[in-house]
Amino acid sequence: MEELELLKRDWKNKEVELPKLSRTEIYPMILRRSTSIVKWIFYISIIEFVFWTTLNIVTSDSDSWKLMRGIHTYYLMMGLTVLSYIILIYFIYKFYSNYKRISYTDSSKKLMKSILDTKRTVTQYVWFNLSIFMVSLLGMMYGTLRYGQDGKRIQQAALQTENETLFWVLVCFICIISTAVFLVFIWLFYKLLYGILLKKLRQNYNELRQMEV
Question: Which ranges of 60-163 would DSSP assign to H, the alpha helix?
């Protein structure tokens, strides 16, 4: 018991010795952390844009475009590619705007709003990419089944089955499951890529909200 009391007294003495940070001292620290996080989100978006652009250039050749023309998805994929570049550039601009705005924030309320805006932009960015991937996959699957050589073999197999409707239901089910698995993988990739940074931003937001109470 005596040792316990000694430990309590020692702990109280340490608490007294710890520096007490005021609100005006805490805010600049949160601002610096938030600015650094938003800056990294901006940098990562640029790296990701360069990565997908490079991958698209490397995988795009005359054979791939010929294949798309053969399954009647050429214009769909070209339209999605152009749309993707336009929207991705827009999001990069948004990330840069968020970074510049948060860098010059002069109040906790404005900083909280900037954090929420950044989180909203990242969420919209991720959902846009998932939507593009989904439309691309479904379009390629439909073109392959409808016009591709593999699709013709599947159509012949369907005609030879006793229940053609059930056969096509199973084919559609397999396509949907495959698409869902791929989208979950992409979502986990973005969760890992941006999730850690957004978690830190959320912590900063909670600290600011406690300061405002």
Answer: 62-70, 74-103, 108-147, 149-160
- The span from the CA of 89 to the CA of 91, in Å, is 5
Query: How would you label 9-29 residue by residue, b for 16+ Cβ within 10 Å and e otherwise?
Result: eeeeeeeeeeeeeeeeeebee
At which residue do the structure tokens 């490397």 appear? 58
Model confidence pLDDT, tens digit, residues 156-174: 877 787 777 877 888 888 8
Q: Which two tokens stand for residue 22?
A: 């005021």
Q: Phi-psi bin for 21: left (phi > 0), alpha (psi -120 to 50), beta?
A: beta
Here the tokens at position 141 are 């699957």
Specify whether the CB–CB gap between 50 and 110 falls below 8 A: no
In this structure, what DSSP letter does residue 72 have?
T
Q: Return the amino acid letter for 8.
A: K
